[in-house]
Amino acid sequence: MTHTGDVIQYRVFPTEAEQGFNRAIRRIVTAVREILRAADLPPGELAAVGIGCAGPVNPRTGEINNPYTLSGWNHCNIVEPLERELGVPVCLENDADAAALGEFYFGAGQGAESMVMLTFGTGIGGAAVLRGQLYRGVAGEHPEIGHVTVAAEGAACYCGRTGCLESIASGTALAAAGKKFGFGSAAEVFAAAASGQPEAARVLQTARAAVDAAIWTLVHTFLPARIVLGGGMVEAHPGFFLEPARAAIARATQIPRDYITVAIAQLGNRAGLAGAARWAMLRAQPEQKHHSEVP
Ligand SMILES: [Zn+2]
Fold first, then answer.
1. How far is the centre of ligand 1, averaged over its atoms, from the C-alpha of 172 (Å)?
2. Any idea which fold 113-265 has?
3. pLDDT band at 286; cut points 50, 70, 90
4. How far is the CA of 20 from the centre of ligand 1 (A)?
5. Closest by alpha carbon to 240, among 278, 197, 209?
6. Which end of the chain is more exposed for a tag (fewer CB within 10 A), N or C?
C-alpha cells in the first residue's frame, strides 16, 4: 500500500498456525518479496510492514499472546525476525485496533477528530482512536468493549460475568439464544424475525436493547465524534445496528449529541490491512508524521 492508501498488490494465504511459527515467518518474507517483484519495486522502496493479528498481542514487544486461535505461536515475537529479514520497521497491532485505524484514515472515520469502532461478528471487538492516536490501555492493550455490562439479568459470558454486550449481541450469542427455539445460526434468527416469528423477534429485541445500552455507555464514556459499526453482522443487517445506536444518542441529554455521528464501516476486512500498513508507515517515517498522529 502507498502512503495515500492505494493498494498496489494484494495476496491472501491461509495462516496455517499449526504448521509452526518459523514456517509462517518464511512464508510472510517470501510473500513480501513476491509482492515487491510483482509491483516492479526494488526492495529499497519498502518503507515498513504492518501486521494486524488476532489478539492478545503486545504491540510494544512484538509478541503474540494468543493461545486460543494461534496456539503454536503463543509467546512468539513476530516483529524481530521480520525486521531482521526485511530490513524495515515492522509494526504489530491487534486486528481490531488495526481495523479501527484503517476506518479512521481511509474509511468511515475520515474527518472525525475521535472515533470509537465496534465490530459485530462471531464476537464483538472494539477500539478507540482519539485525536489520531490509537487509545491504548495498560500493557498496550485496547479496551474490551465487548465485555461492557449492558443488562443486569443478561446471558452468562465466558469472561465470568453476565449481561456482557458480547454475551447478548454477538453472532455466537444470537445463535445460542436462537438454538433454544430451533434456529441453527444468527442468520436464521434474523431471517425468522423478518418473517414475523415471535421468538426470533424477541431474541433480536434483546440484542437491540444491548446495542442501545452499549452505545449509550460508549458515547458517555468517550464522547467520540463518530461511532463506526462494522463486522459481518453489521454488513448483513446495517439498519438493525444503526437504529438503536442513533436512538441511544438521540436520548442523551448531558452531552453535545448533535456532534456525534454513527456510520457503517466502509472497508470490510481490508480495514485491518490498510490500518496496519498506514500505522507502520507513520511510525517508520517520523518526519512525515503529523504531531497528533505520533503513536
Ligand atoms: Zn464478558
1. 13
2. Nucleotidyltransferase; domain 5 (3.30.420)
3. low
4. 31
5. 209
6. C
- Left if phi > 0, otherwise alpha if psi is -120 to 50, otherwise beta: which for 111? left
CA atoms of 224 and 227, how far apart (whole Å): 7
Question: What distance in angstroms lies between residue 284's CA and the mean position of ligand 1's atoms?
Answer: 36
The pTM of this model reads 0.89
Q: Domain 17-97+270-293 in CATH: superfamily?
A: ATPase, nucleotide binding domain (3.30.420.40)
CA distance 42 to 122: 40
3-state secondary structure string across 213-262: HHHHHHHHHHCCCEEEEECHHHHHCHHHHHHHHHHHHHHCCCCCHHHCEE
Residue in this structure with the C-alpha cell 465470568, named with its chain if needed: 160
Ion ligand 1: residues, CB < 5 A: 147, 157, 159, 164
pLDDT band of 102, cuts 50, 70, 90: very high
Which pLDDT tens digit goes with each residue over 50-78? 999 987 889 999 999 877 778 788 899 99
Same fold across 17-97+270-293 and 113-265? yes
Edge to edge, what strands does the sheet with 124-130 contain? 133-134, 124-130, 114-120, 226-230, 261-264
Domain ranges of the chain: 17-97+270-293, 113-265
- How far does the centroid of ligand 1 lie from the alpha carbon of residue 128, in Å? 19
Q: How much is the pLDDT for 4?
A: 86
